[in-house]
Design goal:
heterodimer, A: mainly alpha, two-stranded antiparallel sheet, 2 strands, about 5% strand, globular, B: mainly alpha, two-stranded antiparallel ribbon, 4 strands
Chain lengths: ~650, ~500
C-alpha cells in the first residue's frame, strides 16, 4: 500500500502548480486542475479501501513507514501512515466531498480576482487533512492538525480586505491553539510514561501499563488533555466560539472545512484514541457530557439566528456534539457513522446555502442594491419557486438532519440515541433527544423562512433570482443522493444481526479497547429499540410541527434585531459568550501585557534598575569628582582627617 | 595540522584588509566585494558538514599552537557537532546580511569592514578552545557591533549602542575575573597554569563552592547576551536602532553566543553550579518565554515585537539546555539554528517595508497583502515557522525541548507550552494589522513587491525553514554524539 502517499502528493502537486505557475492560466483552469488532483486522490482512496476490504477482517491494518522524521534519544518518529477501517472511512469522506466541493467552487468563485489562490489554499487543506487522518503517530497527526488549522485560517480570511473576516480567521487559529496546547501536553505525558508516540505502540503499551489500573490519574489526564484538543478543533464547549465566526469564509470553505471534514478531526482523534479513553472512565463521562451539552446548547442558539450560514454553523457545532457524545458513551463506531452521514447532509446544506446566497447576490445586483444582506433570511422567502434544484436538495438535507426515517441522518442519530440509552447515561440521552427536537425545529424554520411564503427582497429584485450554474447544482444533486442513501450501510441492529455493515467493518478498530476493559455492548431488547426509534421520530415530528405552526400556519416573520427582547435577544446574541470571553480573557490579557511592557519592562527594569544604576554611577562619580579639587591644601586636610579617623579606630579597639 | 578553521575565521579579516585598498566611492564595488568575501567564507566552511565525523564527540579539525607560552595561552581551535551547526549558520548568514544591506549608503566602506570583522569575531568565538582566545573574540565582536548600531542605526542609535555596550561589558568583566581565577587555580602537571579549555576540563578540580561563584560569573555574562529575563532590556533598543543587517546578525548569531557560552563553557566546566542554579535558570527561562511573548503582544513597532519574541524563543533554548536530557538539549540546539533563520528572516522582511516606507509602526500599514502578495506569502511562511507550525523548522526545536523538559521538569514544560499559544497571538495579530484589512494609507497603495536582491536574501532561508522542518535528520545526525557527551559532562 506504499502508493497511499500519492493521495497526499496529488494535492501537493496542485498547490505547487497553481501556486508557482498558476498566473499562466485562468482561474477556471486552476479550479479544474485542483479538482482533478483531488479527484485523483479520491481514486487512490477508493483503491486503498478496496484493497483493505479484500483483506481478512482481523488483519485489516497496514502501517507504512516512509522516512525517519525525528529520531533523538528514545524518540523515534517516522513519517508514516496507518491504514485501517477508520482511516479508509475518513479518506473516502475527505477526498470524496472535497472533489465535489472543488467542482462546486469553480462555479461559486467564478470571477473572483484571487480564484487561483483560493484553489491553492483548498488543495493545501486537503493535503493536510489527509496527513491528519493517515498519520501513524500523534505528532504526524499533529502536522495535519495544525496544517488544516492554517488552511482554515487562510480561507476564513480569504477576503482579507474586510477586517472582520481577517479577524475571524485569526480567532479560529488562536482558539485552536488553546486546544493544541492540550494536544501537546497529552503527547508529553504519553511520551514520558510510555516512551513512544506511534499509535500502535502507544495503544499496546497503554493496555499493558494501565489495563489493570483503569481510571489511573495519568491516563485520565492524558485523555482529558486530548479532549481539550478536540474541543478546539471540533468546536465543542468551551472552545466552540471560533466556528460561527468562521462563516466569514467563502461558502464552499464552510461546507468543506467547517462542516464536513476539518471540524470532525477531534472526533476522529478521540475515536482513534478509543483504547486510551476506555482506560479512563472519568474522561469518558466528561466527553459524553461535553458532547451532550454542546449538542443542546448550540442547538438553542440555532433557534434565533438570522444569517442562513450562522444557523448552519450552530447546527454543525450541535451535530459535532452528537459525535463527541457518542464517543463518550463508548459508541465510537456510531460517532464515526454520524461523522460520515453529517458530512453528506451538512456539506449539502452549506453548498445549498451558498447557492441561495449566490442567487440572492444576483438578485440584489440586479437592482444595484449593495446594502441588503444576501445572507439574512429575513430578506428571503418564497425562493423555492425560483431555484427548484437548490430547494429540493436543501429540503432533502433538512429531512436528513431532522432525523426523518429513510434518510442517512436518521440512522446515525438514532444509533447514537439508542446507544446512549443503552449505556445508561440518561443525561446524555435526554440532551440528545432535546437537541433532536430543537434541530428539527430550527432547520424547518430555516426552510420555511427561506423557501416558503412571500419573497421579501427589495422591490424588483425577484426578477434577478436565478438557479445556480451546473457546476454548482450537480454537486448538490450528488450530495443529495448520498444524504439519502449514505445511511443504509448502517441499518439498525433490530432489523437483523448483520445488517449494520458499517458497524461490522469498523469493529476491529475498537475491539482492542473493548477487550482490555472487558466491555460488552449493552444490547437492548427489540421492543425497547423499536420504542426508542419511535421516540426519535416523534421528536423530529414535534420539532417540525412546531416550526410549521409558527412559521407557516401563523406566518410569523422574524423581527429585526432591534425589536428582539428577553430570551430571544439572549439567543440572538448567542448567550453573550463572546462578550464574556472578551471581558474575562482578552481584556485582562491585554491589560497584563501592557502592564508587563510599560510598567514592568520600561518602568521598573529599564527605568529603575538599569538607568537607576547608571545614574547612581554618575552620581557617585560626580560626588567623588568634587573631592578632587586639585587644591593641595584640601588634600592635606583630607589626609589629616583620615589619619585622625584611623587613629581613633585603633584607640577604640 | 590543517588551517581550515583558521581560514574560515580569518577570511573575513583578510577581506576587511582588502577593503582598505578599495575606493570608498564605488558603492557597487564595495557591495560586490563584501558579498564575494562572505560567499568565499561560506563555500570554504561548507565541506565541514560532510567531512565532520558525527560518530565521535572529540573536537575535530583541531588547530593548536602556543601563543603566549609563558602565560599558558594557546591558539586553539576545534569543532564538535554543536559548534558545527552554529559556524555554518554564521557563514550562511554572512552573504545574506550583505544582501540585506542595500539600504545602507553612508560610509559603506567602514560599514562592510565592521561587518567582516564582526564575522571573524563570531566565528572565532564559536571555534575557540582556549579561554583567553575565546575572551578576545568575545570582546572583538562587541566593537564592530557597537559601530554598526552607533553609526548606521536609527534616530536613537547612540543611546542604544551605549546601552548594548555597557550591558555586555558588565557581564564580560565578571566573566574575565572568572577566567583569571580558573587560570590561577588550574595546574597542568609539568606545564603550569593554563587557559586551555580541554586541559581545564581534564585537570581542573574546583571545589563545589568555587563552582557556584564561577558559574554565577559566567552565567551572568551569557545571560545578558542571550538575553535572559530580566537582563533583556538592551535588546529591543539595539534591534530597533540597528540597521536591518545589524538586526539580522544580532538575532541570527550574536544572541546564540550566550546560549553557546552555556553549552560550551558554563555548564560543562561547573556542573555543581548547574545543579544549584538549575531551578533558577529554568524559572527564568519560563518567565522569559511567557513574559517575552506577552510584551510582544502589545508592541506597536514591528521590530520591537520581533525583538521581544526573541526573548521568548531564547527562553525555550535555555529551558532545553537546563532540562539536560537528549531530546531537550537537541531541541535547544535546533531551536538556536531555527531562531537564527526565522528571526533573521523576520528582520529582513521588516527591513523590506522599512526601506520603502521608512516606518516600522504597525499602524502605518494595513492591507498591504493586496499590493505585495509575494511579500505577504513569504512573510506568512516565516511567521508560521516562528509560531512553530509542524512541518517547518520552529516546531522541531520547540517540540523536542518541551517533550524532553516534561520528563525532568513537567511543570516548567506545561507553563512553557502556553508560550505556543501566545506566539500565535502576537504574530498573527501583527500580520492581521499589517497585511489584512483595507489599504487605508494612501502611501501604501504604490508599494512594490519583493525585488530580486530581496528574493536572493530570503530564498536560501526559506529552503532551510522547510528542510529542517521536514527532514531534520540531516542535522540531528550530526549533533547526537556531541550532545550525549555534553549531557554526560554536566550530569555526572
Amino acid at each position: 500500500m506504499d502508493y497511499a502517499i500519492l493521495m497526499i502528493l496529488f494535492p501537493l502537486l496542485g498547490v505547487v502548480l497553481n501556486g508557482f505557475f498558476g498566473n499562466r492560466w485562468s482561474g477556471k483552469a486552476a479550479g479544474i486542475l485542483a479538482s482533478t488532483m483531488i479527484g485523483a486522490s479520491f481514486v487512490v482512496a477508493v483503491m486503498i479501501t478496496m484493497q483493505l476490504i479484500g483483506m481478512d477482517p482481523h488483519h485489516r491494518m497496514e502501517e507504512i513507514k516512509y522516512f525517519t522524521w525525528i529520531k533523538v534519544g528514545g524518540l523515534n518518529l517516522d513519517f508514516g501512515f496507518l491504514i485501517d477501517p477508520l482511516t479508509t472511512v475518513m479518506i473516502l469522506v475527505v477526498t470524496g466531498i472535497s472533489t465535489l466541493i472543488h467542482i462546486y467552487s469553480i462555479g461559486y468563485m467564478h470571477g473572483d480576482s484571487r480564484m487561483r489562490l483560493f484553489f491553492v489554499y483548498l488543495n493545501l487543506f486537503v493535503f493536510f487533512m489527509l496527513v491528519l487522518v493517515l498519520g501513524n503517530s500523534y505528532p504526524i497527526m499533529f502536522i495535519g492538525w495544525e496544517g488544516v488549522g492554517l488552511a482554515s485560517y487562510l480561507l476564513i480570511g480569504f477576503w482579507w480586505e474586510d477586517q472582520s473576516k481577517a479577524e475571524a480567521g485569526m480567532k479560529a487559529f488562536v482558539v485552536n491553539r488553546i486546544g493544541d496546547f492540550g494536544m501537546l501536553v497529552a503527547m508529553f505525558l504519553l511520551f514520558s510514561h510510555l516512551g513512544t508516540l506511534t499509535f500502535t505502540e502507544v495503544f499496546d503499551a497503554a493496555a499493558i501499563k494501565w489495563g489493570h489500573h483503569i481510571g489511573n490519574a495519568t491516563i485520565t489526564a492524558i485523555t482529558l488533555m486530548l479532549l481539550l484538543g478536540a474541543t478546539g478543533k471540533s468546536a465543542q464547549l468551551p472552545l466552540y466560539v471560533w466556528l460561527p465566526d468562521a462563516m466569514a469564509g467563502p461558502t464552499p470553505v464552510s461546507a468543506l472545512i467547517h462542516a464536513a471534514t476539518m471540524v470532525t478531526a477531534g472526533v476522529y482523534m478521540i475515536a482513534r484514541s478509543n483504547l486510551l479513553y476506555m482506560l479512563a472512565p472519568t474522561s469518558m463521562t466528561v466527553v459524553a457530557l461535553v458532547g451532550g451539552l454542546t449538542a443542546f446548547f448550540a442547538a438553542t442558539i440555532g433557534l434565533k439566528q438570522m444569517d442562513i450560514k450562522k444557523v448552519l454553523a450552530y447546527s454543525t457545532v450541535s451535530q459535532l456534539g452528537y459525535m463527541v457524545m457518542a464517543c463518550g458513551i463508548g459508541a465510537f463506531g456510531a460517532g464515526v457513522f454520524h461523522l460520515m452521514t453529517h458530512a453528506f447532509f451538512k456539506a449539502l446544506l452549506f453548498l445549498g446555502s451558498g447557492a441561495v446566497i449566490h442567487t440572492m447576490h444576483g438578485a440584489l445586483h440586479h437592482v444595484h442594491d449593495h446594502h441588503t444582506d444576501p445572507q439574512d433570511i429575513r430578506n428571503m422567502g418564497g425562493l423555492r419557486k425560483y431555484i427548484p434544484v437548490t430547494f429540493s436538495t436543501f429540503f432533502i438535507a433538512t429531512l436528513a438532519i431532522a432525523g426523518i426515517p429513510g434518510l442517512s441522518g436518521f440512522f446515525s442519530k438514532d444509533e447514537i440515541l439508542a446507544q446512549s440509552f443503552a449505556s445508561g447515561n440518561m443525561l446524555a440521552y435526554g440532551l440528545g433527544l432535546a437537541a433532536a427536537v430543537i434541530t428539527a425545529f430550527y432547520m424547518f424554520r430555516l426552510v420555511f423562512l427561506t423557501f416558503y411564503g412571500e419573497y421579501k427582497g427589495p422591490e424588483g429584485s425577484a426578477e434577478g433570482l436565478h438557479e445556480s450554474p451546473k457546476s454548482m447544482t450537480v454537486p448538490l444533486i450528488i450530495l443529495a443522493f448520498l444524504a439519502i442513501v449514505g445511511g443504509y450501510v448502517g441499518l439498525p441492529i433490530v432489523l437483523g444481526e448483520n445488517v449494520n455493515l458499517f458497524h461490522n467493518y469498523m469493529h476491529p478498530v475498537f475491539a482492542h479497547g473493548q477487550e482490555v476493559v472487558h466491555h460488552h455492548a449493552n444490547h437492548l431488547s427489540h421492543a425497547t429499540e423499536w420504542l426508542l426509534i419511535g421516540i426519535s421520530v416523534a421528536a423530529a415530528l414535534v420539532g417540525i410541527f412546531l416550526a410549521w405552526t409558527i412559521y407557516r400556519k401563523q406566518g410569523k416573520v422574524a423581527l429585526p434585531d432591534a425589536a428582539q427582547a428577553g430570551i430571544d435577544k439572549v439567543l440572538l446574541n448567542k448567550y453573550y459568550v463572546d462578550e464574556l470571553y472578551n471581558f474575562i480573557v482578552i481584556k485582562p490579557l491585554i491589560g497584563i501585557c501592557n502592564f508587563a511592557w510599560k510598567i514592568f519592562d520600561a518602568g521598573f527594569i529599564d527605568g529603575i534598575l538599569v538607568l537607576g544604576s547608571a545614574k547612581s554611577v554618575r552620581w557617585i562619580g560626580g560626588g567623588v569628582r568634587r573631592l578632587q579639587t586639585g587644591v593641595v591644601g584640601n588634600y592635606a586636610f583630607m589626609l589629616a582627617v583620615g589619619i585622625l579617623v584611623l587613629l581613633i579606630a585603633f584607640l577604640v579597639n | 595540522m590543517s588551517i581550515w578553521l583558521s581560514s574560515i575565521v580569518f577570511i573575513p579579516t583578510l577581506g576587511a584588509l582588502l577593503f582598505l585598498l578599495l575606493p570608498a566611492r564605488s558603492a557597487k564595488t564595495l557591495r560586490n566585494a563584501a558579498l564575494v568575501v562572505m560567499l568565499i567564507d561560506f563555500v570554504v566552511s561548507l565541506p565541514l558538514f560532510w567531512m565532520f565525523d558525527p560518530s565521535t564527540s572529540k573536537f575535530q579539525f583541531v588547530e593548536q599552537a602556543p601563543w603566549v607560552p609563558s602565560l599558558g595561552i594557546n591558539y586553539h581551535l576545534g569543532l564538535d557537532g554543536i559548534s558545527l551547526l552554529l559556524v555554518l549558520l554564521t557563514t550562511f548568514l554572512g552573504p545574506i546580511v550583505v544582501l540585506g544591506s542595500s539600504a545602507v549608503t553612508k560610509h559603506l566602506k567602514g560599514y562592510f569592514i565592521s561587518m567582516l570583522l564582526l564575522q571573524t569575531g563570531m566565528l572565532g568565538t564559536f571555534l575557540s578552545l582556549d579561554l583567553f582566545l575565546f575572551y578576545i573574540f568575545w570582546e572583538v565582536m562587541l566593537i564592530p557591533m557597537y559601530f554598526l548600531i552607533g553609526i548606521w542605526g536609527g534616530v536613537e542609535r547612540i543611546y542604544a549602542a551605549v546601552k548594548f555596550f555597557i550591558y555586555t561589558m558588565v557581564g564580560s568583566l565578571l566573566m574575565l575575573v572568572g577566567i583569571l581565577w580558573i587560570y590561577f587555580n588550574t595546574t597542568v602537571p609539568g606545564i603550569g597554569h593554563t587557559f586551555d579549555y580541554t586541559q581545564i576540563l581534564r585537570y581542573a578540580d574546583f571545589g563545589a563552592q568555587a563552582q557556584l561563584w564561577l558559574f554565577a560569573a559566567f552565567a551572568l555574562a551569557f545571560a545578558i547576551k542571550v538575553p535572559m529575563f530580566p537582563f533583556h532590556t538592551w535588546l529591543p533598543d539595539a534591534h530597533v536602532q540597528a540597521p536591518t543587517a545589524g538586526s539580522v546578525i544580532l538575532a541570527g548569531v550574536l544572541l546564540k553566543m550566550g546560549t553557546y557560552g552555556y553549552i560550551r563553557f558554563a555548564m560543562p566546566m561547573f556542573p555543581h553550579g548547574v545543579e544549584t542554579f538549575k531551578p533558577l535558570m529554568l524559572t527564568l527561562a519560563v518567565i522569559g518565554i511567557i513574559y517575552g511573548a506577552m510584551v510582544s503582544i502589545v508592541q506597536t513597532d514591528m521590530k520591537k515585537l520581533v525583538a521581544y519574541s526573541s526573548v521568548s524563543h531564547l527562553g525555550f533554548v535555555m529551558l532545553g539546555l537546563f532540562a539536560l536530557n537528549q531530546q531537550a538539549v537537541t531541541g535547544a540546539l535546533i531551536q538556536m539554528v531555527s531562531h537564527g533563520l526565522s528571526t533573521g528572516a523576520l528582520f529582513l522582511l521588516v527591513g523590506v517595508v522599512y526601506d520603502r516606507r521608512h516606518t516600522r509602526l504597525i499602524a502605518d500599514y494595513g492591507g498591504i497583502a493586496t499590493v505585495m502578495p509575494k511579500y505577504a506569502a513569504v512573510f506568512m511562511i516565516v511567521m508560521l515557522s516562528s509560531v512553530g507550525l509542524p512541518g517547518l523548522n520552529g516546531f522541531v526545536g520547540e517540540f523536542l525541548i518541551l517533550l524532553g523538559t516534561y520528563k525532568t521538569a513537567p511543570v516548567f514544560a506545561i507553563l512553557a507550552a502556553t508560550g505556543v499559544i501566545l506566539a500565535a497571538v502576537y504574530l498573527l495579530w501583527m500580520f492581521r494589522r499589517v497585511f489584512y484589512g483595507e489599504l487605508v494609507h494612501e502611501e501604501n497603495k504604490g508599494l512594490k513587491d519583493l525585488k530580486g536582491i530581496e528574493w536572493a536574501s530570503l530564498l536560501p532561508i526559506l529552503v532551510f525553514i522547510f528542510w529542517i522542518g521536514i527532514y531534520p535528520s540531516t542535522f540531528l545526525n550530526k549533533v547526537t554524539v556531541s550532545i550525549t557527551h555534553f549531557i554526560g559532562q554536566v550530569a555526572h
